[in-house]
Amino acid sequence: MSTSERAFRDPAPAPATIGRPPDYLHESHTLRSWFLTTDHKRIALLYLAAITAFFVVGAIAAGLIRLSLVVPNGEIFTNDTYNKIFTVHGVVMVWFFLIPSIPATFGNFLIPLMIGARDLAFPRLNLLSWYIFVGGALFTLADLIIGGVDTGWTFYAPFSTTFSNTYVIPALIGVIIVGFSSILTGLNFVVTIHAMRAPGMTWFRMPIFVWTHYATSLIFLLATPVITIALILLLMERAFGIGVFDPALGGDPVLFEHLFWFYSHPAVYIMVLPGMGVISEIVPAFAQKRIFGYRFIAYATIGLASITFVVWGHHMFVNGIGTGAAVVFSVLSFAVAVPSAVKVYNWTATIYKGRIRLQTPMLYAMGYIGLFVLGGLTGLFLATLAIDEHVHGTYFVVAHFHYIMVGGTMLAFLGGLHFWWPKFTGRLYPEAWGRISAFLIFIGFNVTFFPQFLLGYLGMPRRYHDYPPEFQLLNILSSAGATILAAGYLFPMVYLIWSLWFGERASANPWGARGLEWTTPSPPPAHNFARQPIVDFEPYAYPDPPADDDGAAHVG
Amino acid sequence: MNPQQQALSLWPSAASAAATSADHLIWSFTALTLVLVVPIFLGIAWFALRYRDGKTANRRLRHGHDRMIELGWMIIPFVLTLIFFVWGMRLFVDQKLPPANAMRIEAIGRQWMWKFEHPGGQAEINDLHVPAGQPVLINMISQDVIHGLYVPALRIQMETLPGRYTQLWFNADRVGTYRLLCSEFCGTDHSTMVGLLYVMTPADYAAWLARSHHGERIVSAGRRLFASYGCAGCHDGGTVAAPALAGLYGQVAANGAYVDDTYLRSAILDPDSTRVPGQPAVMPPFKGVVSEDDLFRLIAYIKSLDPAAEASR
Ligand code: HEM
Ligand SMILES: [Cu+2]
Ligand SMILES: [Cu+2]
């Protein structure tokens, strides 16, 4: 039995803190040691802090939106203020929270641990990415302080270039800069996954989490440059009057829509694939069962990342693209359902005949599956030409992408945060509070967003603060749900921070999960592994139940 | 008179047969969604309870059919949903082919109002009156940013682009008053760029037309403008070798492009963009000279020209 195998099969109980080499958190305490660190684990926590701050900004904006929509006549804020609020919400949540959320935090922390590496391929580049991210973000914050921007996160031209009277340029610069951070992170991950896998860690021994991050990184690398160019062109048109998109200057506004969605549809998979990776780790761990159809899931991941590049036109069905093009984009969008279905059915099959523990991360994972399925299927509604012709630009779209991005990605983020929190911090959080907030979030989410499907079907356009009175009751319901949702988010912020000091100490592997990251102590030492791991086992090597299992035997 | 005044509506009104077909599509797709998701939801809930850790259950797994199972749940839902792709495509394509007898209304979107002009020259702001049972084609353009003309009761919308015409047609056969909205964010007062669609009996519509103040018919206004902008000087005989415009619409132009409204618009505003390469630049650009309103009048006039009459002149 090789060392690594022993380490894996029987993770040595972590020695008591005394006499143990200090972990990555306690190795040094100076501010400098944090802000100039090249340790992927510390950088991950820097990202966690930054995106949490942005989440709070975006969430406050969301609260103001829901407050405004309680009344139909738009009396709470002026029209311009309302437009700025939803723009802040969209820009911050999409570009500064969702896109970096899982990859930059969990991906950063876990990819080296999962593949048995000491760090990412380019540790200093990794730190640089964080500074670029924060630098870009500061432009956006500055924008908020000097007066805000009202274009929506989609920056459609020529409104954004010629007609808006707000501070579009700082917002654009911020988003462009943050794009470079994504590109560098993607590059780092791709090289790491190619070059730094431990001996024996073949491609098909990698956890699905690593597969999804590999696919996400490819999208970062291939799609981000397109949005960067599109936004630079916007900037040039706005700042110097160089006509690219405004027909009055000889440009073409539909070109911007193409460039924007060529990136932004793949970007939705940047947001969603890492979440699928998280769920693919949580579900087997809490079912104590090998993931069903590992290879199919790995291929589906790459399939999704490929198809995602050819469906952008489904955002443009009603802007006069040719009928033939619309039909092609529609059927390609339906094809996305295939790899998505693979994942959902495989997770379900993994739960079947497992040994299920309904702890907090698993509750989040189950919530995720439900909401992701609804979000994905309503995506197919939108991909259906005659339906999109009705609900495009309405609250139906808003509900669709919130089911995917909040119901999906956000739940995966929280599930992953609870799952790996012991690994990140060495502490356990109070389980009862974890379960309560998972339920609050699930209920609050559905009360907030389900009515929006109905609103969209009834014909309420999005980005309206002054809306027809017949929509008021559903809007009130939605706002009421948002307060439950807000409570659900507040709890983890409080008890997770509380647990840093007062939480129970975590063992190396509190969930009995499989995977290299659980073979290191919690929190891991700065160099991750005491010895180079050698991998001679399959991923998700949870034992099959013995043939005569009646459930009495307990594997922990 | 307004569409709805209560705070809750749960069923959108439908003003056309196409809207009802769209509803059938939506609700059938919803039914399929239930068929696909209810087993997953029940399955997850049931497995989670049945196979709770510590519970006695038969956990023996039979391996061997995994590949068939995988292929099954990839292909079956895909094929089922494809039915809806085809259904949705057919309704959509129908919406793209206006019947020949459609009555044409010109629409201009601008921050933050809609302007509609009927063939007889009756213009209205934000509201639109149409006769029931008569196909109506709306030809629209924006003067500034992108807008979107959206009538939920018809289940259709179309972006209104600057610099290019887009079209939308419908046959509203249920008399009533419905909302008409802007569906593409266009700035400060986006949410008040709204009005009402009045679907009237043909008799009421005729009365409304007679009642509303109207200037000239669109085509005759176009003929007048064609003279006053000096187009006629070149295009109606004269010394310059300007091409004849009669019968041009719907043909393939000398530069190989298909002549539609947007083609005529660019030929007038920016002749460089449609001129056959190598030809001397004779026609002056009218960009910044002719307004969007005058443009659709000129275009309507050009389209009304009869090649036979022209030849005999
Ligand atoms: C899997 C993750 C997905 C995410 C994160 C996502 C996210 C989004 C977002 C953000 C928008 C709205 C963009 C905007 O107008 O501001 C959107 C719209 C849309 N999504 Fe998704 N989506 C996902 C999956 C799907 C799937 C699987 C389909 C269909 C196969 C789909 C079809 C559509 C369509 C057609 C629209 C355009 C609706 C319209 O504006 O008319 N989406 N999605
Ligand atoms: Cu998309
Ligand atoms: Cu608008």
TrEMBL record, chain A:
<feature type="transmembrane region" description="Helical">
    <location>
        <begin position="85"/>
        <end position="115"/>
    </location>
</feature>
<dbReference type="Pfam" id="PF00115">
    <property type="entry name" value="COX1"/>
</dbReference>
<feature type="transmembrane region" description="Helical">
    <location>
        <begin position="474"/>
        <end position="498"/>
    </location>
</feature>
<feature type="transmembrane region" description="Helical">
    <location>
        <begin position="44"/>
        <end position="65"/>
    </location>
</feature>
<feature type="transmembrane region" description="Helical">
    <location>
        <begin position="267"/>
        <end position="287"/>
    </location>
</feature>
<keyword id="KW-0812">Transmembrane</keyword>
<feature type="transmembrane region" description="Helical">
    <location>
        <begin position="363"/>
        <end position="387"/>
    </location>
</feature>
<feature type="transmembrane region" description="Helical">
    <location>
        <begin position="399"/>
        <end position="421"/>
    </location>
</feature>
<feature type="region of interest" description="Disordered">
    <location>
        <begin position="1"/>
        <end position="20"/>
    </location>
</feature>
<dbReference type="GO" id="GO:0046872">
    <property type="term" value="F:metal ion binding"/>
</dbReference>
<comment type="pathway">
    <text>Energy metabolism; oxidative phosphorylation.</text>
</comment>
<dbReference type="InterPro" id="IPR014241">
    <property type="entry name" value="Cyt_c_oxidase_su1_bac"/>
</dbReference>
<dbReference type="GO" id="GO:0004129">
    <property type="term" value="F:cytochrome-c oxidase activity"/>
</dbReference>
<dbReference type="GO" id="GO:0020037">
    <property type="term" value="F:heme binding"/>
</dbReference>
<keyword id="KW-1133">Transmembrane helix</keyword>
<feature type="transmembrane region" description="Helical">
    <location>
        <begin position="321"/>
        <end position="342"/>
    </location>
</feature>
<feature type="transmembrane region" description="Helical">
    <location>
        <begin position="167"/>
        <end position="193"/>
    </location>
</feature>
<keyword id="KW-0249">Electron transport</keyword>
<keyword id="KW-0679">Respiratory chain</keyword>
<dbReference type="GO" id="GO:0006119">
    <property type="term" value="P:oxidative phosphorylation"/>
</dbReference>
<keyword id="KW-1003">Cell membrane</keyword>
<comment type="similarity">
    <text>Belongs to the heme-copper respiratory oxidase family.</text>
</comment>
Automatic annotation (TrEMBL), chain B:
<dbReference type="Pfam" id="PF00034">
    <property type="entry name" value="Cytochrom_C"/>
</dbReference>
<dbReference type="GO" id="GO:0016020">
    <property type="term" value="C:membrane"/>
</dbReference>
<keyword id="KW-0186">Copper</keyword>
<dbReference type="GO" id="GO:0020037">
    <property type="term" value="F:heme binding"/>
</dbReference>
<feature type="transmembrane region" description="Helical">
    <location>
        <begin position="71"/>
        <end position="93"/>
    </location>
</feature>
<keyword id="KW-0479">Metal-binding</keyword>
<keyword id="KW-0249">Electron transport</keyword>
<keyword id="KW-1133">Transmembrane helix</keyword>
<dbReference type="Pfam" id="PF00116">
    <property type="entry name" value="COX2"/>
</dbReference>
<dbReference type="InterPro" id="IPR036909">
    <property type="entry name" value="Cyt_c-like_dom_sf"/>
</dbReference>
<dbReference type="GO" id="GO:0004129">
    <property type="term" value="F:cytochrome-c oxidase activity"/>
</dbReference>
<dbReference type="GO" id="GO:0005507">
    <property type="term" value="F:copper ion binding"/>
</dbReference>
<comment type="similarity">
    <text>Belongs to the cytochrome c oxidase subunit 2 family.</text>
</comment>
<dbReference type="InterPro" id="IPR008972">
    <property type="entry name" value="Cupredoxin"/>
</dbReference>
<dbReference type="InterPro" id="IPR001505">
    <property type="entry name" value="Copper_CuA"/>
</dbReference>
<dbReference type="GO" id="GO:0016491">
    <property type="term" value="F:oxidoreductase activity"/>
</dbReference>
<keyword id="KW-0813">Transport</keyword>
<keyword id="KW-1278">Translocase</keyword>
<keyword id="KW-0812">Transmembrane</keyword>
<comment type="function">
    <text>Subunits I and II form the functional core of the enzyme complex. Electrons originating in cytochrome c are transferred via heme a and Cu(A) to the binuclear center formed by heme a3 and Cu(B).</text>
</comment>
<protein>
    <recommendedName>
        <fullName>cytochrome-c oxidase</fullName>
        <ecNumber>7.1.1.9</ecNumber>
    </recommendedName>
</protein>
<keyword id="KW-0349">Heme</keyword>
